[in-house]
What does this fold into?
Amino acid sequence: MPPLLTFLLMVASGCVHRHQLIVVEFLQAENRLLKERLRGKRIRFTDAERALLARKAKAVGRKALLGLDTLVSPDTLMRWHRRLVAQKWDCGKRRSQVARGSCGRSNG
It folds into this structure.
């Protein structure tokens, strides 16, 4: 790759990285302010909201979550994710809903 192109790519990626850091800092500040407004009040999340937060939290990772000022503790987020995975693989509920029909043979 030509040196000029390499240099331009490095500058462009640096700008993108810097912008992402600014966005993350903004979201962290916004989150802190919202948490202060709540002052210990409990937020009730729907099942869909818990599932979304659990998937996102798993992608971020527990160690990284510990460094963030989240509305929900990292342990709770990971617990929600474990439950989400457990529900996905829980075949007991689905098995009882499946109707068992004949195997294609007539009984008559």
Observations:
- The mean pLDDT is 83.
